[in-house]
Amino acid sequence: MAKEKNEFWEWTKAFLIAIGLAAIIRYFIIAPIVVDGESMMPTLNDGDWMIVNKLGEPERFDIVVFHAPEHKDYIKRVIGLPGDKVEYKDDKLYINGKYYKEPYLDEYKEQEPGPLTPDFTLQDITGEETVPKGEIFVLGDNRLYSKDSRHIGTIKIDEVVGDTSVVFWPLNKIRLVD
């Protein structure tokens, strides 16, 4: 009888440790998220399941998940970092006066008859000349139909949950995205 109690206790401890580790990993390191909407098409599709990496700071062109003002999580692409001057002119991205290619938009640019991203400067949108310290400027890849920093302003880095680059569901669409 004592051996059965000891074995039961060992299994209980192992189960509790596994649950604790899973909770720590889920809360502090990685978490799943479901893409809701079409603002990141063609890169991400509505209903894609992704893994969010909660470690590290956002970098330019990372796809990040953040808490939006509407008490909802959004998935968008980081365009401007703190101190950056962001401008779109003739459907081209300029950061601090330097032109940046956006290959993830090529598929949509081929389909759209006009500009994918209307002209703007950061100052037009936020009244600030540069992205404020501790904040980022984000855009959805589906520029014509995305609610992003052009509408909700810059995002505090504290509101960023993490970055994401792995689609793991549906199984036939498992892939890395950039």
How do the helices and strands line up, and which of them pair or pack?
Blueprint: H1 2-29, E1 30-34, E2 49-53, E3 63-68, E4 72-80, E5 86-89, E6 92-95, E7 98-100, H2 106-111, E8 120-121, H3 122-126, E9 135-139, H4 149-152, E10 155-156, E11 160-169, E12 175-176
Subcellular location: Cell membrane; Membrane
Membrane topology: Single-pass type II membrane protein
Protein name: Signal peptidase I
Explain this structure to me?
One of its GO terms (biological process) is signal peptide processing. Belongs to the peptidase S26 family. Keywords: Cell membrane, Hydrolase, Membrane, Protease, Transmembrane, Transmembrane helix. Pfam families: Peptidase_S26 (PF10502). It is an enzyme of class 3 (hydrolase). By secondary structure, this protein is α+β, with helices and mostly antiparallel strands. The chain has a single domain (about 30-175), classed as Umud Fragment, subunit A (Ribbon), CATH 2.10.109.10. It has four helices and twelve strands, in the order αβββββββαβαβαβββ. The chain has helices at about 1-30, 105-110, 120-125, 150; strands at about 30-35, 50-55, 65-70, 70-80, 85-90, 90-95, 100, 120, 135-140, 155, 160-170, 175. A hairpin with a 2-residue loop joins strand 5 and strand 6. It is elongated. The termini are far apart.
